[in-house]
Design goal:
two-stranded antiparallel sheet; 4 strands; 13 helices; 338 residues; disordered C terminus; 3 domains; Variable surface protein; mainly alpha
């Protein structure tokens, strides 16, 4: 078991920017025929494995390792700096699931150390190296989040596969539906993020039903599988139930994806600064200017709780200005502060 620290509620961890952005257009199939660069990564990964775990067959390790090497290269060369954190979250999930859990190294206490060790090996013949692009975006992913990412990854991998007509098979459709239901039943701690992801996927299913229904050659059967036995209607009903359970108390009933985008604005550094100044200078607590308080970044929420606690313990400070000062000479001159 790796010794990574576990993310908690105070950590800034948002999965809503990962899918489909960080999977779209990238081939995760370990058996795909690829370029010369992929072969170079295969050799590099094989050398690493033989050095760290001698005496074992390196092929399974090299297959997943080279895909991650190509993925890191893609991040380094094609992804904007502002988006790299989301891509690296997915990388650390895949690193832990596909490599670290199956091929642990005793001398590595956490995922970052394992990753660093991989970056230190290079293929001198071809100049190939595992990119260190995600070192500065390290996150350790707990089991709850890992399961969520697993279901989302498999769902969006199917979505990528469905771009090829011939792969809209009954087998792939059943896999797609199965992982959607697993995601739906997953007890993820952040219900708002879970609901947002399910909304995107259900919308995609409805798009498929509309588009594929008229394609009698390749997709009509796939469309039928999404509507058979009221499957899509059941998904929509369960999504509505999730909304009732998780959002009723927050006053954000039937939250939409468009509204979810406001949460990123509410949690921005500019608003955080404004809200903090608001408390310090006027005594007004954070969130009074917006109905979206529940979506403030965790660190802002924590600050607000501390301020409220301090206010309760120091009421003489809270109300220090709600007094009446009288002029010592003439009591006609009264100044009230409120």
């Amino acid at each position: 078991m790796m010794g990574d620290s576990i993310l908690d509620d105070d950590d800034d961890f948002d999965i809503n920017g990962i899918f489909p952005t960080c999977t779209d257009g990238f081939d995760w199939d370990i058996h795909s025929r690829r370029s010369q660069l992929a072969d170079d990564f295969t050799n590099l990964c094989s050398n690493f494995y033989n050095k760290e775990m001698p005496g074992n067959l390196s092929t399974p390790f090299s297959q997943v390792c080279r895909v991650l090497g190509l993925y890191l290269n893609h991040i380094e060369g094609n992804v904007e700096d502002t988006k790299k954190k989301d891509w690296c979250i997915l990388f650390y999930y895949k690193l832990k699931k596909d490599i670290i859990n199956k091929y642990p190294l005793k001398e590595c206490n956490n995922s970052k150390e394992y990753y660093r060790k991989m970056t230190e090996v290079n293929n001198a013949k071809y100049g190939t190296r595992i990119s260190s692009i995600c070192m500065e975006y390290f996150v350790n992913i707990d089991q709850d989040t890992s399961k969520l990412l697993e279901y989302l990854f498999e769902i969006y991998n199917c979505i990528n596969v469905f771009k090829t007509y011939q792969k809209r098979t009954t087998e792939n459709m059943h896999k797609f539906k199965r992982y959607i239901q697993k995601l739906e039943e997953h007890h993820y701690k952040n219900k708002i993020q879970l609901k947002s992801e399910l909304e995107k996927i259900i919308n995609k299913c409805e798009f498929y039903i509309k588009e594929w229904n008229s394609d009698t050659h390749f997709a009509k059967h796939a469309s039928d599988l999404l509507t058979f036995d009221n499957w899509i209607e059941t998904r929509k009903r369960k999504l509505e139930e999730l909304g009732k359970i998780t959002l009723m108390n927050s006053g954000t009933y039937n939250l939409t994806n468009t509204e979810m985008q406001h949460t990123k604005v509410i949690g921005s550094p500019a608003l955080m600064s404004y809200a903090t100044d608001d408390v310090t200078n006027t005594g007004i607590s954070i969130g009074t200017h917006t109905p979206y308080f529940i979506f403030l970044k965790p660190r802002v929420k924590k600050l607000r709780k501390k301020l409220i606690k301090n206010n309760k313990n120091n009421r003489e400070i809270m109300y220090s200005f709600d007094v009446e000062n009288k002029n010592s000479v003439d009591d006609r001159y009264k100044i009230a502060y409120s």
